[in-house]
From TrEMBL, chains A, B, C:
Catalytic residues as annotated in Swiss-Prot or TrEMBL: 25, 214
Major site of localization recorded for this protein: cytoplasm
Any one of the GO BP annotations: fatty acid catabolic process
Domain HotDog ACOT-type: 9-127, 183-297
InterPro entries: Cytosol_ACT, HOTDOG_ACOT, HotDog_dom_sf, Thioestr_dom
GO molecular function, one term: carboxylic ester hydrolase activity
Designated name of the protein: palmitoyl-CoA hydrolase
Localisation: Cytoplasm
Listed Basic and acidic residues bias regions: 148-169
Region (Disordered): 146-180
SUPFAM superfamilies hit by this protein: Thioesterase/thiol ester dehydrase-isomerase (SSF54637)
EC number per UniProt: 3.1.2.2
């Protein structure tokens, strides 16, 4: 029987579990954050396993980037999630894991692809978390496959360096009582990092951070349109700095752009140590989440327009619009190519 | 004492479970919020069970008030918590449950009383949550016992009515970058109410709310003094309004008063429905938590003084000081009486 | 790629996840109850999936029995658990699922078999939980394999009927202050069943019940010997009655027998509705757990002898001794056969 064989193969892995009430909102839709968290767990396991197949320090795979990803179909309580992960590229110090999330209705037997994403990890030594280990090379089916991986590697490397500069920006605070403004729906949550959130070397799992980010973004979206909302997509997320056990994490979400039927929400994650005040707050992660609003038959609803106040909000709106148009053009190009 | 006998009798109950890593902070101290949550669960079970021993609508006991309570000793991961609850007074529409929290070190056999509190419940019909059912009377050991219960009942009733007025007050927002000011440590968290937070009729358990309150208060305290902090006591908490499943709860904590070795933190809980915008935010609960700062041997440390800005903060500081002095006087009087 | 293929095959399934701090005791040993709960989830998924491959009412597989199972090796935080389940026999109204629990150290690559067990399920209609559906037959590799399955089926059926009578027995209460008596270590916990504990038709997952049972048994064992204790084995467990959402579950454990290096603990699970007091308590499950005591190098320690009080305790001790000797004889016979 092939079950345990797939498990032996160090280059692929499958996680599965039942979706529970706590994974979903009141209407029964599983939160996007749960999907991201499970995908990251699969990536972390396969990445860590792969990087320890060599001699030298034992190490853990730490998430440094998730490529843009789309939520293709809603998932419900009682369905079984199957997450499969495969290592698809290795550079000297990083590896790419492609992860698929399938949802199976075990009552009808129906299966659907709910999400797929590419995650980048680097192996950090357990002795010294700042020491990045070398990644054993994988074998490629073809030279072409390797070349495509190398291109993806170069592209994400460049983008990670670009976004580094932006991370120092500070979050302006002003809540606004007028409905449909940015200030009205802006929301923050504080989370005290606990043992269950952490890896063996006491840093927060990337998946836990993404779950918190999705939670805040969902609250922002719901506050703006007062309907059932779901995560539609997430832009590339870069994990600039690690978050240590015992930190306080502040996750803030604010609307940046609204199209006819979607909302773009910027989510900023700031961390600070509870007991070492001198070190101060730092920006650990930031990303853009896109949400849509659904009616009772799970069909997209129009979204109320955003009331803009001031130049800063206007600038962010324009930037969001550019991202929206770019991603729309890409989608259309992909569709054309596939036909 | 006959644990399971008392368990048969519908007027007392015992809950126990192991303390786990997620129940505690990094140093291993169990959060005060976990203690309050377990005590409320015991009260809810015994109250609900008692109120359903009569004919009529089935009902659930909803928490309306917790009397001031003190944390007598720290509790650690690996200890077993024993929570015992007993119904000690019944009025026509409410009942008082006295709850004790013992911590047992199962390796040494040592047991210590960690907390005791009095909780007040009212039975709400499962058909119509606004309908308050009648409470079956309990039997008292003596007329004196009944009379004392009646006095406690009258006292809390009066206090609950007094605090009602204060609940509409709005939370001033200003975070302040200067250390040891009120604005510097002020913190808020947002929580989206999930199924696990709720009772059978889809309202948040009082214990869940208290756990969130303790969490925010702990973050405020730690931000102020950057040390290991623990809950020392909680002033009486009144639950003014119920919080429904699907609500967004915003819990805000701010320092009000600081003595040599303790911090008083006011915690305000505001709730709003995610999908029914028209209803708006409402103040559901508010309370004062007192925290102390501990060194590595669990001994109290001096707390940095609070820098006051403006009249409002000064007024709240004076009020806090009055509560502090009053509670100190009470404690001394009790000690004198016991000698 | 073979990953998704194994997932397609309806007769086998794999669940895996990282072991977290909350899954383990202070020393880092994963609780036996977590192992049992994950194994039951795998069995429930594969059983439910299989029973819905036919037309007729949609149904869920409800656990009715777990065969005696042994914990072969300790599991630690940070290891990855792989649970594989396979349907190995089907009768008209029930199915047998054999489940293996492997623990993988992803840092060293080491894998070990931690547990295997056989679970029996019956498919209950989602429309009417009392209606037992028919189970589609599986194909056997050989007639011999089918015949062996049929024998296991008959044996467990007979045993289930025998134990039915015993379930009405009531738990005698007297805790005893003298150390090493039955009353001294006897423990109870009460749990209010929440949504996350339940299946789609609002009955408690068998795995959730087993986790609670293991928790109580662990407390009893630790109280008796004041050392690090782990689950060594669990006797066959019969699930006599289902437990509904909103129930209060009382789980009681008491020592029955002690050999040189092991403790047998009887665990009884009683359930009652929170709001329908008149319906009364009923015995839902009962089982015998065997624990051992470990020193710092994970080697078994001698266990303090049990002080017996009265005829009832003596009778239970003798029965436990008979089970112990029988299971020891079986183990020796198995070892002889394998040589």
């Amino acid at each position: 029987m092939s079950v345990s064989q797939t498990c032996e193969a160090s280059s692929s892995l499958q996680i599965c579990r039942l979706m529970r009430p706590d994974d979903a909102n009141i209407v029964g839709n599983v939160h996007g954050g749960i999907v991201l968290k499970m995908m990251e767990e699969a990536g972390c396991i396969i990445g860590t396993r792969h990087c320890n197949t060599q001699s030298g320090d034992r190490c853990l795979a730490a998430l440094v980037r998730v490529e843009k990803t789309e939520f293709l179909t809603p998932i419900f309580i009682g369905e079984v999630a199957h997450v499969t992960a495969e290592i698809t590229y290795t550079s000297k110090h990083s590896l790419e894991v492609q992860v698929k999330f399938m949802a199976e209705n075990i009552l009808t037997g129906a299966k659907k692809l709910a999400n797929k994403a590419a995650l980048w990890y680097v192996p950090c030594s357990l002795q010294n978390v700042e020491k990045i280990m070398e990644v054993p090379a994988i074998k490629y089916a073809s030279a072409e496959q390797e070349e495509e991986g190398r291109k993806r590697y170069e592209a994400q490397k460049m983008e990670r360096q670009e976004t580094k500069a932006r991370t120092e920006e500070v979050m302006p605070p002003p809540p606004n009582p007028e409905q449909h403004t940015v200030g009205f729906s802006q929301s923050s949550l504080i989370h005290l990092v606990g043992p269950t959130d952490c890896t063996l070397h006491n840093y927060v799992h990337g998946g836990v951070t993404m779950k918190l980010m999705d939670e805040v973004a969902g609250i922002v979206a719901a506050r703006h349109c007062n309907t059932n909302i779901v995560t539609a997509s997430v832009d590339a997320i870069n994990f600039h700095r690690k978050i240590k056990k015992g930190s306080v994490v502040t996750v803030t979400g604010r609307l940046t752009f609204i199209s006819n039927k979607s909302m773009e929400i910027e989510v900023l994650v700031d961390a600070s140590s509870l007991v070492e005040a001198e070190k101060g707050k730092y920006r650990a992660v930031s990303a853009f989440f896109t949400f849509i609003s659904l009616d009772k038959d799970n069909k997209p609803l129009p979204v109320p327009p955003l009331k803009i106040n001031g130049e800063e909000e206007q600038r962010r709106f324009e930037e969001g619009k550019a991202r929206y148009l770019q991603s729309k053009a890409k989608r259309l190009a992909n569709q054309a190519r596939q036909q």
